[in-house]
Structures
1.
Amino acid sequence: MHLDMDAFFASVEQRDNPEFRSRPVIVGAMPGRRGVVATCSYEARVFGVRSAMPISEAYRRCPQAVYVRPDIRRYAAVSKQIMTILGEISPLVEPISIDEAYIDITGLERLFGAPEAIAAMTKQKILEQVQLVCSVGVGTNRLLAKLASEAGKPDGLKVVAPEQVQAFLDPLPVSDLRGVGKQTIKSIRRLGICSVRDLRHCDLELLVAQFGGKGALHLYNQARGIASDVVGLVSERKSISKEHTFNEDISNPQQIRDCLRRLSSEVGRITRKKGLAGHVISLKIRFSGFETHTRQQTLTESLDTDIAIFRSAWSLYEKSGFQGRAVRLLGVGLSVWEVETPAMGDLFATPDEKLQEKRVYSTLDEITDKFGEGSLTLGLHKRQG
Ligand code: TTP
Ligand code: MG
């Protein structure tokens, strides 16, 4: 299932300012200034106003609209509420943007009924709990669900059953498909293709000649409703880092080592708390006078333990060539890919040693949560360090 809020920013403004309801509302820059439309209410779309249009153009088309500056924090708070509601419906929710998410509803029929009923219930819950209207689409994969939610906008609810896939796709313009930019559209038009039906009747060889193997296959598959049905596995790179500034510059290697130990433990704890693991370690060193250097290394294995993070950070320091210089600031960072945490089954499948390590760290984290940072630290054998 794919869900997308209708005229999101503008709808929140209409909800919170009853005097804006049933009026054209344009959220974005102020008329007379530079800038663009972020979004507008459906009442304003009648006048041809669209997202990303220069505000001067919007004003020419619809001077009588209410013009509002965006209040992203408020919209983000509403977004969070919506994602929470979705999380109560399915354990697999993949937020795509501030107002859009994929929800895997496979296997929920016994709990909530047919796909139509699940979609209707979702819309109802959102309307009741945040007083906003959305469009929902259901299909056998991401492409179909997304196209179905777009097709019903606004206040849409569309289910594309497996036997309806081709009849649903065929009349759509090719520009509705994913990853079809202006350049692709131009080339496709040159081949005389307008609709998905035209595309489906086009030879794969012709598409390969025009768009290369990968691009051609992407189009060829989409025209037949073939796409990924995986929800929740996209990864996003994030960095978790901690740094410390000394009151006085230090050059004692033991003090530098202790500081890196502490920073590594803090980074490790945050990483584990988020259920993540990192594969790029970075070390930041600042000397007096703000001279700052970073060193980083890509690891062969993802890490989430204090000791492994420390070892990598320490080896970066040893290789840095900065030993002996007085240090003002030290920082340790770990770049992580956010991935779905493995199911419990995987945990029990790990070898004994790994399992034991997991237990040690979960105890360490519990105690640190309860009694504070530094209340318990792991000993590090000199030989290993
Ligand atoms: P969209 O879902 O693309 O648009 P929408 O929710 O306003 O309208 P629709 O009913 O067609 O879904 O984007 C969600 C929000 O993201 C939108 O309310 C404002 C913001 N946004 C921008 O700030 N700039 C843009 O160019 C777009 C497309 C969206
Ligand atoms: Mg939207």
Note: The chain has four domains: 7-70, 73-166, 172-222, 239-371.
2.
Amino acid sequence: MKLLLVEDEEKMARLLQRGLTEAGHQVDVCGRGEDALEQGLQIAYDAVLLDWSLPDLDGLAVLRRWREQGLRTPVLMLTARGTVGEKVVGLRAGADDFLVKPFAFEELLARLEALHRRGDAQGPAQAVGPLVLDARRRVLRHGDKEQPLTGREFSLFSELASHAGEVLPRSTLLSHVWGDGFDGPPNIVDVYVGYLRGKLKKLEVAEVSIQSVRGVGFRLMVEGRG
Ligand code: CA
């Protein structure tokens, strides 16, 4: 599995990274919430180990932002307290499992593998015409061709595809994909539509296109569908 470990205590992070690597996983380590937030959206991980208490943005805030952005990567939260109230808050924020510190490494490994199996079984894949949008691996597939998507690309494509045939205003796309707090340039939507078009082209899929609707926004069209 390709894993993201978000843990600010260096000794703990090193120990876990070594153990997980020895167990055959590939592990990226992040010690800050803000960095983890961005990295989780940019790189497709199979699962995330997320420490609740971090020096800047805490694990819960990171998790909430990810889920708001449509990121569905399984998340195992690591917490020092583990009260019932805390677990409820975490689960509502979109955590898939919890582990209370201190824990046995074997338990961490077993829970991670269980999360991964569950993800496989659910196989959250959406058909968009001849394309398959695979949420777990965050790729767009056409036959035997695949294009990896970044978190934002995934959310944008998913939003457009869920409303295929409808014109979605830039403002709607901005608020759903980038969040209401986004204060960058609105043409970021156009930039990302450009990235997606490039990927559709590489997939050689003629039946799916993203049309610009002048002065309004964008519409994903699937040939043979309204
Ligand atoms: Ca910590």
Note: The domain at 125-222 is CATH 1.10.10.10 (Arc Repressor Mutant, subunit A).
